Amino acid sequence: MNIGVLGAGQLGRMLALAGYPLANRFTFLDTTGHPSAGIGDVMLYTDQHHLLDDFLAKVDLVTYEFEHLPVALVQAIEEQKPVYPSSEAIRVCQNRAEEKALFDRLGIPTPVYRLVEHADELEAAARELGCPVVAKSVTEGYDGKGQAVIRDPAEAGDAWRSIGHPRLIVEAFVDFVREVSIIAVRGRDGQVVFYPMAENVHVDGILRYSLAPLPDLDDTVQQTADDYIRALLDALDYVGVLTLELFQTRDGGLMANEMAPRVHNSGHWSIDGAVTSQFENHLRAIQGLPLGDTAARMPTCMVNVIGREGDSADLLAIPDAHLHRYDKGERPGRKLAHVNLLAPTHAELLEKVRTCAALLPEAPASRFSFE
Ligand SMILES: Nc1ncnc2c1ncn2[C@@H]1O[C@H](COP(=O)(O)OP(=O)(O)OP(=O)(O)O)[C@@H](O)[C@H]1O
Ligand SMILES: [Mg+2]
Question: Distance, CA 17 to ligand 2 centroid (Å)?
Fold first, then answer.
């Protein structure tokens, strides 16, 4: 099976690494001008039609690892080859207004929000919702980019200019106990499997640590998250891996933050920590193969390597540490690698996380809700 992947970053690289044992071949179509997958065939997409034809001639089906793509491009591809998940999933997930409307329609709680198209409207929304609020561009955001926290309505003008986008979503700032995510996989036949939820630690809007399974997660909370994501998967007639980021509040309740129609950084722990990784399960789903067991083998923590790398030998000297490097150049804020750490108990795992963080020049201190 020749798999076409829209996008050519580290997520595509890890998809290919999971697909080679299944004898899959990969052709990437990069729309950013900066492919980093470093594996398979990489084609640079320009508006030239023969290029798209060349890509389509090489592949049996198409998936993606990046959702900030022109929907018209994905629709055009869909007319010629199967695309999983569909262009409809991209259309909804690349736009925070569409995404929130779907959460509302399915009864999935979210922070209260308003849509604004002018600095004055932003100020009015900040007053109405009560500060602090978070303003986010409706499209194109990632790693906390295109966002501003507004602590006083008077800051609205500056926030509007700094984001520089014609349409924003303004959300009440959630005083969460922790951030969590749920990853699920839906097969072509509608079968759904769920990974154990992960706790995600962000610093300055960038994911730094993901840990799963959680030592203190109530079964009913996992069940609620499973129900939310199943509703989304079914509503979108989705095939593949879907990720839902959530806030957990003091009363134990969950509120949806955003979703990603693809394999996700908060699921990288599954490469070494789960029976079947999110990457393998995505490939199984889109090819109509049986889905694999999502159970965790052991408590696992994923540590992101951002900006500057650590010494590989030092990191690999930690027992049951697994280093995944993306072969990218160092640059502030850039995701370069991750380390998966496994341990039989959460106490031992946290010890390893501290040892690992001390070896990474830019790693902030970790702090999990259950410590
Ligand atoms: N309403 C909110 N209340 C409190 N914190 C928030 C809120 N919205 C966002 N944040 C914080 O900012 C982080 C990034 O926000 P969000 O997930 O919306 O952006 P993003 O840029 O799409 O991130 P990514 O694509 O990397 O997941 C969240 O993980 C959370 O830590
Ligand atoms: Mg996010």
Answer: 25
